[in-house]
């Protein structure tokens, strides 16, 4: 869309900086000579890319967001270590840690019976006070990956776009049935699965990047 492309170009060229306020919908209608619905659709597109945010209230409006952090899928370390090393301003907080019955997907990954006891750790990652990622990590009791090896030898990431669970929506501040970027991560030492994680990422709050070589 021409209007979305024009706004995106001004943001990416730094003509519009983080914190700048966009003209009102009425002003954009006059500037581009289109219907208000067309302007709203263009703003929706740019917002879905994490480039702008809409604020309500007396000082509300549409503002340019800071560039969303980039999540490197092949950085070689976990997200917590990656963000700490990058000095990205992204913080992590463990929300809960304990023993739970293994859901079917977790049981299948570890090749144990559904309902078997596993250790579950929930971690919320935030940037500038906004949650951007919620990770639910599973290990077998007494088999945390640190006990087998300081670092996993290899891992597999599966990327999908899927509806968030109620728990993920609550943790990320999303509405019911919101769609998230999903990373299903399996970490291995040899052939042994040491950690299985379900990671939900707000599509408007972070970008995923993977680098391959020929």
Description:
Residues 1-67 form the HTH gntR-type domain. Keywords: DNA-binding, Transcription, Transcription regulation. This is HTH gntR-type domain-containing protein. The protein is an alpha+beta fold and 214 residues long. It has 2 domains: 2-64, Winged helix-like DNA-binding domain superfamily/Winged helix DNA-binding domain (Arc Repressor Mutant, subunit A), CATH 1.10.10.10; 70-209, Chorismate lyase-like (Chorismate lyase, 3-Layer(aba) Sandwich). The chain contains 7 helices and 10 strands. The chain has helices at residues 2-12, 25-32, 36-48, 79-86, 104-110, 145-148, 166-172; strands at residues 52-55, 61-64, 70-72, 90-101, 117-127, 130-139, 154-163, 179-189, 192-201, 207-209. The strands form 3 sheets. Strands 4-5-6-9-8-7 form a 6-stranded antiparallel β-sheet, sandwiched between helices. Strands 1-2 form a two-stranded antiparallel sheet. A two-stranded parallel ribbon has the order 3-10. A hairpin with a 2-residue loop joins strand 8 (179-189) and strand 9. Helix 1 packs across helix 3. It is elongated.
Throw out a few tags for this protein.
about 210 residues; alpha+beta; Arc Repressor Mutant, subunit A; Chorismate lyase; 2 domains; 6-stranded antiparallel beta sheet; 10 strands; elongated; transcription; transcription regulation; DNA-binding; HTH gntR-type domain-containing protein
């Amino acid at each position: 869309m021409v209007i979305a492309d024009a706004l995106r170009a001004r943001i990416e060229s730094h003509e519009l900086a983080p914190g700048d306020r966009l003209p009102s919908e009425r002003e954009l209608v006059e500037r581009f000579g289109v219907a208000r619905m067309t302007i709203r659709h263009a703003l929706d597109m740019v917002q879905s890319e994490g480039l702008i945010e809409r604020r309500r209230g007396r000082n509300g409006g549409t503002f340019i967001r800071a560039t969303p952090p980039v999540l490197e899928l092949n950085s070689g370390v976990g997200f917590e270590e990656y963000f700490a090393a990058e000095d990205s301003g992204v913080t992590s907080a463990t929300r809960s840690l304990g023993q739970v019955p293994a859901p079917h997907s977790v049981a299948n990954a570890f090749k144990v019976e559904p309902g078997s006891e596993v250790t579950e750790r929930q971690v919320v990652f935030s940037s500038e006070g906004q949650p951007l990622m919620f990770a639910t990590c599973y290990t077998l009791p007494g088999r945390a990956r640190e006990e087998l090896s300081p670092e996993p030898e290899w891992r597999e990431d599966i990327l999908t776009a899927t509806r968030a669970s109620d728990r993920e929506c609550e943790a990320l501040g999303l509405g019911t049935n919101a769609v998230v970027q999903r990373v299903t991560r399996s970490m291995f030492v040899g052939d042994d699965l040491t950690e299985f994680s379900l990671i939900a990422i707000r599509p408007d709050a972070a970008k995923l990047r993977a680098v391959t070589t020929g």
